[in-house]
Amino acid sequence: MSQSGETVKPQPDVTARPSGGPSVPRAVASAGSGGVSALVGRTIPWLFVGLFLLFVLAFLIAPTVVLVVQTFIGDNGFTLSYLAGLWDYQYRIAFENSIILGVASAFVGLVGGTFLAYSTLQPGAPPILRSIVTSFSAVATNFAGVPLAFAFISTLGSLGLVTLGLKHIGINIYAMGFSLYSLTGLTVTFAYFQIPLMLIIITPAIEGLRAQWREASDGLGATSFQYWRLIGLPILFPSLLGGFLLLFGSAFSAFATPYALTDGNIALVTIDISNVLSGNVMSDPQVGAALSTGMILVMAVVLIIYSLTARYAARWRR
User: Fold this and answer.
1) Among the residues of 24-160, which ranges form H helices?
2) Reduced to 3 DSSP states, what percent helix, strand and coil does the chain have, rounded to the nearest 5?
3) Which of 17, 34, 235, 282 has the most CB atoms at less than 10 Å from its CB?
4) What are phi and psi of 176, to 5 degrees?
5) Neighbour tally for 59: CB within 10 Å
6) CA distances from 244 to 104, 146, 237, 254, 293 (A)
7) Are 142 and 135 in contact (CB under 8 A)?
8) In 3D, which of 263, 277, 284, 258 has the Cα closest to residue 98?
9) What is the pLDDT of residue 9?
């Protein structure tokens, strides 16, 4: 109310008026600006998600669908002949060798990585030791392919540094049956990155073992063996199994290192697929699709088991 008794109407807050144009309330302008910012903030994340999904579709899902279609569709329509052809001797041996290599190298990585991780986590271990081992493991897990093959040929090949050094002291490992260019040699080579990979996987699980559990076990008079048999290993088992499956998948699907090391002379599934698709053998390209489908089925089983064990292991780390 003014002194004269008249009602004074509040005037809207306006922005600067453009020449010849109507005035715009500042509240409306702010709301419009905020709405645009919110829209942009919601759009950008979905844009990146969409690009990622497009990438997965183009380079993972679409090739997988094409392989499956080529496996079951022949010139005369639906057929199981290509899948049944995987039981032929040469392809069956390739799958057997790949599985043996995966299991053997995964077991070496499981044992070596677990004991190495446990040793570095001991209370009396120097803190710098864990830092050095963890840093080396992060590098070693990504060291594969042709560089890794060349490193082992230079070290454990027939004229390698270690091989010649052992000969000077009267030990001929090749005369004793060892060969770097065999499944045993591939297992030794794969151990270089399998052990560090297992260390990275199992370290959080070992850290999750609570000191109170060991103290309670000691208080009840249990021995160290009884603690690990009844408490430690049952708790670590899901993580150990999950790590083993992950290492198996890594070795089972490896191609560059075995091919560079053996020049493709060992029958492995990945090498057979390369031979079929590169035309090095007289074979139908759809056989390569069937081999790939077989690998996908094996890896799918491994991933399902790994997912189940990882979910169970996560309960102990909460």
Assistant:
1) 26-56, 62-72, 81-84, 89-120, 127-140, 146-156
2) 75, 0, 25
3) 235
4) -85, 0
5) 10
6) 10, 24, 10, 15, 23
7) no
8) 258
9) 52
* Tokens 């001797």 sit on residue: 89
For 247, the enclosing helix (H) or strand (E) is: helix 233-252
The CATH architecture to which 85-317 belongs is Orthogonal Bundle (1.10)
Q: How many residues does the chain have?
A: 318
SS3 for 108?
Answer: helix
Burial 273-289 (b: 16+ CB within 10 A, else e): bbbbeeeeeebeebbbb
Contact 91, 291 (CB under 8 A): yes
The angle subtended at Cα 143 by Cα 139 and Cα 144, nearest 5°, is 160
> Which residue type, as a one-letter code, is found at position 273?
I
pLDDT the model gives residue 1 = 47
Query: 213: part of which helix (H) or strand (E)?
Result: helix 211-219
Give the β-pairing of 77-78 and 73-74. antiparallel
Query: How many CB atoms within 10 Å of residue 226?
Result: 13
Domain locations in the chain as residue ranges:
26-78, 85-317
CA pair distance 170, 173, nearest whole angstrom: 10
Does the reported pTM lie above 0.85?
A: no
pLDDT tens for the chain, 318 residues long, are 444 445 555 555 544 454 555 554 554 445 455 666 777 677 888 888 889 999 999 988 898 888 888 888 877 778 888 888 888 888 899 999 999 999 999 999 999 999 999 999 888 888 888 889 988 998 888 888 889 999 999 999 988 999 999 999 999 999 998 999 999 999 999 999 999 999 999 998 898 888 888 888 888 888 888 898 888 888 888 889 889 998 999 999 899 999 999 887 889 999 988 888 776 555 677 888 888 888 988 888 888 887 887 776 666 555
pLDDT value for 28: 47
Please work out, in degrees rounded to the nearest 5, the angle formed at the alpha carbon of residue 143 by the alpha carbons of 137 and 145: 155
Can you tell me the distance from the alpha carbon of 111 to that of 244, in angstroms, rounded to the nearest whole number? 10
